[in-house]
Every structure is written in structure tokens, then in C-alpha cells.
Amino acid sequence: MSNFLEKLFRREPNSASQAKERLKLVLIHDRTDMAPGTLEEMKDELIAVISRYVDIEPEAVRIDMTQDGREQRLIADIPLRPAKRRRP
Amino acid sequence: MDYSGNGKQFSGKVVTVTSGKGGVGKTTLTANLAAALAADGQKVVCIDGDIGLRNLDVVLGLENRIVYDLVDVVEGRCRLRQAMIRDKRLPELYLIPAAQTRDKNAVSPSDMIRLTNELRPEMDWILIDSPAGIERGFRNAIAPADIVLVVTNPEVSAVRDADRIIGLIEAEEKGPARLVINRIKPAMVKRGEMLSMEDVLELLAIELIGLIPDDEGVVTSSNRGNPIAIEGKSKAAQSFRNIAQRLQGHKVPFLELQEDGNLFGRLARLLRPGGN
Question: Which chain B residue's Cα is nearest to A22?
Fold first, then answer.
């Protein structure tokens, strides 16, 4: 019963899932030797370069590091603004 | 997967046990794996690669018989055979102890390759117990390796260091390493307070070769200098023997560690080969 109440009122997720989530992030940065701040810096530069060629929404750009087995992948999601059509 | 060179002569395999972090059970695994392989009738020599901090000798209970050590061999003060201490409990188990009073730079990676090449024709297995860390001792230990086993515990610090080591092993083209998860506490995993085998495998993304439950018997057997894998009845003892079986190319299911395992787990236990 006390176990049940404990679970009912517990705000924190259990420590194993915390460990797993924290490790996921730590390992991504360990494996790529990239500081968390570097990713933000790179994102700003990417936005600047891509904007020279196509019209994009800078606020909607997402750049994330993901794990695929032991491979790290940089995933960029860059929504384009619809081209402004000229009236016929 | 068959890791052994069955049927071939002069095919001694070099297996290096490493971890990055200290205290996760490298020496215990090396000692028990060596004992289990030797109990299966294999010719085994284990080399303590931790120069300056030798320990494999006490875990194996051979500390009183040391005359020459690894550095004596490398520096030509004795022949290789003279530094090999034979374990009297098993037919073909030998130890080459580390030097205790020298620093780790007394041996180089090419020394280790030369030494193991001399041992390969005579032995089935050459096990190297790597020191903790990522420096010279680690480089020495993996230089001659055919198979690298990475030991970790289900804890954040050990898993992080294991990941780093796995990356270095890949960079040295000694990969893919095989993982041994040591000191799992099934009750804590069940409560969600310890990383599970699945969690660790997902994070590290390498093949599992061993899963060892936390067991006081491992400490008491080390106290006696009598590896638990020789005739221990516990799940930990069986887990060590199962790793030895897998190295020899046998398919052995992983033990169900949860006491109230499902039907499948109980069946797997009933059917497991090599039980007591």
C-alpha cells in the first residue's frame, strides 16, 4: 500500500529512466566531441547559408543529433516557405 | 557466432578484457573466464596487463608462486616458460603476472604482440586483463587482441566509460567489441531503479556476450583465491561459464535473472546446456 501511495504521489520518473535519458545525451556529445553550444552556433550559420538560396522559416528549423546503432546522425528539419506565385 | 578457431592447430586466440572505468570486474571476469575455459579442457594462459597494480594473481590464488613477471620476459631476464605459473587445480591454466614495482611504460604494444605470437602455437586462449584507463596499459592490452570484451556495470559512470572505450577499440580496428554487463541486481531493475540489460544494450549498441548478476559469492571466492566459475553452483558462476561457452562458439541462452521469470525464461533455464 505504501508502495502504491509512493508511486501515486511521486513526481520524478524512476532513476533508471533518468539515467538512460541523461546517458543518451552525454554519449551523443562524447561520441562527436561536440559541445552542446556548438550545435546552436552551427544552426545559426546553416540558416544564414540556406536563406541565401531558398526562403525558409528560421524559427521552425530543427537540428538534432540522433543515434542509429553506434552511428551518430545530424538531422536537420528545415521547413520551406511556399513560393510566392505571380498572378497570371 | 563462432569466435574459436576449432580444429586448427596453432590457432590460439587473444581475448582482451577491458572497461575504461576501474572496479567494474575486469580481473574477476578474466580469472573466471580463464578457469572456465581451462575446466572445459582448453589450454589457457592469462596475462595481467596492469603493470604496477597487479591483481590477477591474488584473484586466482597464485600470488605465492611468482618468481618472474611480464617485464622480466620482455626485458629478457627469463624465458617465457619461466614466467608462466601453472595453476595446479586445472590441467592447463597458466598465469603471467604483471610486474609490481615497474611503471606501465616498461612494456610496449609491439612487445605484447611479440609475446602473444610466441604463445599462440601452444595455447588455445590467451586472455589479457587490461588496466583501467585509456593510456599505455590499455593500448598494450588491445594491441594483440583478436576479440575484445568490454565489461560494464549498469551505472551511469561505467556505461559512459564503456562507450568511450568501445569507440577507441573501433578506432584501433579491434572492433566490434563484445559487451559483458556485470553486477546486475534484478530486484532493483524490476523496481526501475537500475538500468536494465535492454537499456544498456540500446545505449551502447554492441553485441552482448555476458550478463552476470551481482553475487556475494564472487567476493568470497576471490577472498579464497578460488574462482567461482570452477565449480560454483550460483547463477553468477553459471554466467561466467556461459561466456566461456559462447567464446568457444556454442549458442547458450542468457540466464533469466528475475526470480519470477515468465514461462519462456523458466523453459530457457531448464533447457540450458552446461548446467550443473
Answer: B156
pLDDT single digits (tens) A41-73? 888 999 999 999 999 988 899 888 888 888 888
H-only helix segments in B172-215? 186-190, 197-204
DSSP state of B249: T
Q: Which of A22, A29, A70, A71 to mutate to test the interface with B (most CBs of B within 10 A)?
A: A70
ipTM, 2 dp = 0.81
CA–CA dist B197, B265 (Å, integer): 15
CATH value of B13-256 in 3.40.50.300, 3.40.630.30, 3.20.20.150, 3.40.50.150 = 3.40.50.300
Task: Tell me, yes or no, if A15 comes closer than 8 A to chain B by beta carbon.
Answer: yes
Which positions in chain B touch A26 (Cβ < 8 Å)?
160
Q: Chain A contacts of B204, Cβ < 8 Å?
A: 70
User: Which of B230-234, B243-247, B262-266 is most confident?
Assistant: B243-247
Q: How many domains does chain A have?
A: 1
Q: How many CB atoms lie within 10 A of CB B43?
A: 17
